Here is the input.
Amino acid sequence: MASEKPILYSYFRSSCSWRVRIALALKGISYDLVPVNLIKDGGQQFSAEFKALNPMQQVPALKIDGITISQSLAIINYLEETHPNPRLLPQDPKKRAQVRMIADHIASGIQPLQNLSVLKQMGEKKMEWAQNCITSGFQALEQILQHTAGLYCVGDEVSVADLCLVPQVANAERFKVDMGPYPTITKINKALLELEAFKISHPSRQPDTPAELRA
Amino acid sequence: MASEKPILYSYFRSSCSWRVRIALALKGISYDLVPVNLIKDGGQQFSAEFKALNPMQQVPALKIDGITISQSLAIINYLEETHPNPRLLPQDPKKRAQVRMIADHIASGIQPLQNLSVLKQMGEKKMEWAQNCITSGFQALEQILQHTAGLYCVGDEVSVADLCLVPQVANAERFKVDMGPYPTITKINKALLELEAFKISHPSRQPDTPAELRA
Here is the structure.
């Protein structure tokens, strides 16, 4: 049972799914991917079948070791505890706190405000709303990173913070946020996108990526 | 230096501040509280002084061991690692995953959508918006808890999930959400509110609680 391959329920464009795909790639965990299309048929995440699997009706969800976990950071923490190499949290508790602070700032402070279900309710104001949420979050993030960053968000080791950063920058670009005021974010994002794990997990290279968006 | 008392920047009614106050109380960590009034003077969190301390311009923030941490779950995780007793995460990785899934569902999936800064932008629709966010989040939460709960959210030990649950239920009550459909949430909330750490950290008993709201 424990040797069954994990199954990741994912949507190519979901930034939270991408976080988990990066973690799986970095840790070298092979998995099967089941696409859940958040748009088609009014959203496949609302089907009775998917709801039974994940009552939160969101992706990502990971079936692993006989359980199903949802919430991207909960999944990543589970992977970190069960597959500790390479580590995605620094050893020093103070640096770990910085990593978590940045990850939570993105995962609780930015992404939820510009996710699909909120934007659907914004009608015409959708684009402006998303831009405002991201801009205000990035202003704080840029300042924080100026203190914590090395090559990546916290020092020179890839961490959970980086797994949140790259998908959030992709959202910013999709919503045409001017990245000019965020040189540190931009630099780190670029460095991370050079890494193989970030490339193969990219939304443009998923089994459910529509042909016109493929890399 | 390490023996300096931690300073918690808190607002009596902030549900995220309450999460941290519960953790500090459970772990028996004494601290000084500096109130940050999120309403007065257009929001004291926007002052230059506070922004220098926490660029996210939010409470809670905790000054401890020479660093300042923001984001409630990052703070709680730091406390868990530096003051492990009593533990707020179960030993078993699968149960830890359940705890984090529930905590993140509240911290990323519910609270951010009904926090002060979002509601300010909703004008007349404020109440309805908050009710919808909480209702939809609680429907999923009720189902999850039916599988995981014992006395508390996950089994019979108080965990980080419980630190998120109680303040979120208080928000639900403030926004007059009908709790009828959520018997499991209601039962766990009631059991937790009997515990001393949840009582002394309650919004009705803070130094900055206005006289008319005091317990």
